Amino acid sequence: MKRNVWDMPRVALVLAGLMLAALAMRSYPAAAEGGRALPAPAVDLPPAQASSAVVVLAGGCFWGVQGVFQHTKGVISAVSGYAGGDQRAAHYELVSNGNTGHAESVQVTYDPRQISYGRLLQIFFSVVHDPTELNRQGPDTGTQYRSAIFPASNEQAQVAKAYIAQLDQTHAFKKAIVTRIEAGRTFYPAEDYHQDYLTQNPRNPYIAINDLPKIEDLKRFLPDVYRAAPVLVAGSRASR
After folding, report:
1. Residues of the domain holding 36
2. Which three-class secondary structure state does DSSP give residue 236?
3. Which residues pair with 108 in a beta bridge?
4. Beta bridge partner(s), residue 54
5. Is residue 240 in some structural domain?
6. Is residue 92, in this structure, part of any structural domain at all?
7. Which of 11, 19, 100, 105 sits in a 20 to 30 Å window from 188, CA-based?
8. Mind listing the pLDDT tens digit for each residue in 102-137?
């Protein structure tokens, strides 16, 4: 599981040096299965005139999920956080215990005039995570790492259900998709040190093994929506 060794101050990681990096490389299991080309949803939300919409997605450690969507054209912001439990439990140390009901999640705000909700789901299932793994992703285990969609509307929920059925019926994966659709849940932003983590810590062994390959998969399988410069939480705050 992802532990606080990777949340240590930068100075501590530097002092640990190559010895710590080598140990981490031996300690972590292999990364989850890589991305794949998947068809776009046969059912999608109709084009909208609004300049922004929101969906919350959970697919394992939020560092990688956030990183992928920050590199997606049409995404306005991607914020790491927690969804599924109550506000009192929306703290990393509590969520890490796996008994709060929360999943590590990312709130994706996007421009539906540039990218559709269905297209975001295609990215979610294609490169963000393996939706057939129950309560785990790669080296991380527990309900806090479950695959889940927290729709902002009934329409979003219906499109998600239809897409899951489409992928299952066409045997896009060797196993059935276990992604949960959890409506009516509140999203709570994670602590500041979790935001933009992939961009700020590209040499972290966990990021290098598990998350940077997802960015490459986005570029490989969905090049038309890939953007090289990520939209960062820090940047959006600075512009306010």
Report:
1. 4-225
2. helix
3. 55, 78
4. 109
5. no
6. yes
7. 11
8. 999 999 999 999 999 999 999 999 999 999 999 999
Average pLDDT of the chain to the nearest whole number: 88
CA distance 59 to 128: 7
Q: CB–CB of 186/85 below 8 Å?
A: no
Residue 237 maps to a domain: no
- Residue 17: per-residue pLDDT: 37
What are the start-end ranges of the H helices in the chain? 10-27, 62-70, 92-95, 117-123, 154-169, 197-200, 205-206, 212-221, 233-238
Contact (CB, 8 A) for 63 and 194: yes
Phi, psi of 105 (to 5 degrees): -135, 170
In a domain, 102, yes or no: yes
* Residue among 16, 137, 141, 62 nearest 5 (CA): 16
Tokens 């729709």: give the residue. Answer: 151
∠ Cα 221 134 86 (to 5°): 105
Q: What is the pLDDT of residues 144-157, one digit of tens each?
A: 999 999 999 999 99
- N- to C-terminal Cα separation, the chain: 36
Tally the domains of the chain: 1
The Cα–Cα gap between 156 and 56 comes to: 11
- pLDDT value at position 117? 98
Which residue type does 169 have?
Answer: Q
Q: How confident is the model at residue 34 (pLDDT cuts 50, 70, 90)?
A: confident
Tokens, residue 92: 């990393």
Q: 104: domain CATH number?
A: 3.30.1060.10
What pLDDT was estimated at residue 33? 58
Q: Which residue has the higher pLDDT, 234 or 12?
A: 234
Torsion angles phi and psi, residue 221, rounded to 5: -90, -25
61 carries an active-site annotation? yes
